[in-house]
């Protein structure tokens, strides 16, 4: 376990957000025993006109015990061609970031920091080779085009970052394999869940909302975004197969996917409630008799299938998954199916499992995949590397690395 270490975290999103990322959850955990400086993405000068309340200072975050830094504006690099112009402005922006980070570090600790780079490839590439540090970590949690604000130069920035990084954490096996060629040690670190948030559904004090309390049973539900990963034809088959119950659908649907939802609403036993607030999710999931993950296999669903399964299991709900039969090989206590007929059979089997100990077993399994456990693994890996540096006389990493 890490104790009293100084951690600089470069994030592509602000600390205050309604959609916390893996970086947010991990830093919350690491801040319990360490000094964490959470560095928000530096805005480009051209963004100032629509960011009137931009902060140019650091402040303590009281709830989780870390410090948040909003850097000053920097030059936009997206329109630049690759080569010397890009490297020059990257160096200038890096110097600005480095100066304000050093100033903020003076208020936290005098120890050499550990640099943690989330999806901010610009900041990571600019600082990893110039900031004096003990260790550099790159946390890769998705496709580069999705997680960086500089997709045009993403591959170049990632290679530059990896050249000055000692360990890479990747959130999927495929992603981990793809990063091996970059050079540093690669560790598979699946996304975790906010276990205590979802496990609140096990409390007898929490009751399902009135909006679903009187719907015909069984309630077979899906809670999540309604986008390309959802198998809408499979949901139509569920509505037909369980006409005496309710197919409850909760989540945001935009664009032409809203039309797909309207078709589903033509079935008399389908109820669509739209999106709900995050703090209401455990109560709604508690009202499900069975939770569905009706996804088609693809890059999008591959990224979060384990996350969604763990969230549902944490509430104690039985889970039926479409397509991902390999979850069984990972010992996940879910029912998997490859075709509509076996999917309906799996739902019926799940409805028959009314044992109270099953809900507790589901939730305990999900707890193994909490962010607390993920943070423990991160600390084990980093702690081991720091110990090796110390025992074998490897010098601490400096700006010359």
Q: Please identify the top-level CATH class of the largest domain.
A: Alpha Beta
Fraction in helix: 25-40%
H/E element order: EHEEEHEHEHHEHEHHEHEHEHEHEEHHH
Strand order, largest beta sheet: 3-4-2-1-5-6-7-8
Q: Could you name the CATH homologous superfamily of the largest domain?
A: Glycogen Phosphorylase B
Basic shape? elongated
Q: What is the assembly state of the chains in this entry?
A: single chain
Q: How many discrete domains?
A: 2
Q: Which fold does the CATH topology of the largest domain refer to? A: Rossmann fold
Mean pLDDT: 88
Give an overview of the whole structure.
The structure is a single chain. The chain is an alpha/beta fold and 401 residues long. It has 2 domains: 208 residues, Rossmann fold, CATH 3.40.50; 173 residues, Rossmann fold (3-Layer(aba) Sandwich), CATH 3.40.50. It is 38% helix and 15% strand. It contains 15 helices and 14 strands. It has an 8-stranded mixed sheet with strand order 3-4-2-1-5-6-7-8, with helices on both faces. A 6-stranded parallel sheet has the order 11-10-9-12-13-14, with helices on both faces. The radius of gyration is 23 Å and the shape is elongated. The two termini are 26 Å apart.
